[in-house]
UniProtKB/TrEMBL annotation:
GO biological process: regulation of gene expression
One Gene Ontology term, aspect cellular component: cytoplasm
Cofactor annotation: FMN
Occurrences of domain DUS-like FMN-binding (ranges): 14-335
Keywords annotated in UniProt: Flavoprotein, FMN, Oxidoreductase, tRNA processing
Residues of the full protein shown: 1 to 341 of 461
Record GO terms (molecular function): flavin adenine dinucleotide binding; tRNA binding; tRNA dihydrouridine synthase activity
Protein name (Swiss-Prot/TrEMBL): DUS-like FMN-binding domain-containing protein
Amino acid sequence: MTSKELDYRNKLIMAPMVRVGTLPMRLLALEFGADLVYTEELIDYKLMKCKKVFNKVLNTVDFVDESEGDNVVFRTCEKEKEKVILQIGTADAGRALKAAKLVEDHVSGIDVNMGCPKEFSVKGGMGAALAANMDNAKKILTTLVNGLSIPVSCKIRIRKTVEETIQHVKELESTGIKAIGIHGRNRDERPQNKPHPEVIKAVVESDIKIPIICNGGSKDFIEKYQDINQFKELCGASSIMIARAAEWNVSILRKEGMLPIMDVIKMYLKLAVDYDSVATNTKYCVQNMLRELQDSVMGKKFLEAQLMEQICDVFDMKDYCKQKQLEYQKKEMEIRLEKKK
Ligand code: FNR
């Protein structure tokens, strides 16, 4: 049923990252030069029970879980609409379609996580468990491809051998998906193990026709922008997705060169304030950017901060945060009054 197209070739992509790939980080990645950005993995049953709300204060579209105190499960805006791919965690074709249908008009593509080896995913039949259940994996993808007007892709890990990996990709390709992301580690390998770009290369050089997005180079291969191309070449792929290197300093995606982390944190915080992100999520992301700087005096002050205003204060942005929060409160009041008229 796909009617909208998305070119997955020659793309620099921010990979899906739970808790990291929320709206402020996605917008910053796009500002720095990402062509496409993935959301964090959103679990189908969580997403499908959300209510779609047009947030007039922020100019965003929010998918809100009313049963959990109006928790925003997914927030997006017009700025990223043509470039955002929502990743679903699922073990059930019906649920996956229901969740994807809810967001279909607001994202450019749907990706299915078929690589996550974490216990939470695998126990629920999601992520890497789908590699061992090809019938279900294909059913999920076929259902999405047939039921959605936007392209569908999936993200996997390599298998134990090159031959198995190629066969695996071939089967997934047969469902009509438009691209496949391949993390060059198998399900038993941890992030600290060296990835296998040569396996991804063998897939690219096989008779698979859909674009392959290579992944897994952050720690061992990618320290600066130029390294991105080198890893891509090792994998023979035209598109690449980056996770940890972007988590640590998202300006790695910047062609003109990486920016100092303190500048990046400030840019990130501005977006987090502008899009009213929750403090716990913001803190988590900043913490991953600070890394060893957490041991400094500034870092210790940061670790104690809990409220958005306190986090911003550490980076001399308290006034900006307060001013924006007041602006939003005022706007909210005006909207409420308007509604009453
Ligand atoms: C991840 N990864 C991941 N993968 C996925 O398919 N869905 C997800 O939600 C997440 N979440 C996530 C969170 C964090 C904090 C990290 C570091 C990683 C895996 C990620 O997308 C990628 O496949 C690996 O990190 C390997 O790529 P890099 O880090 O070498 O570029």
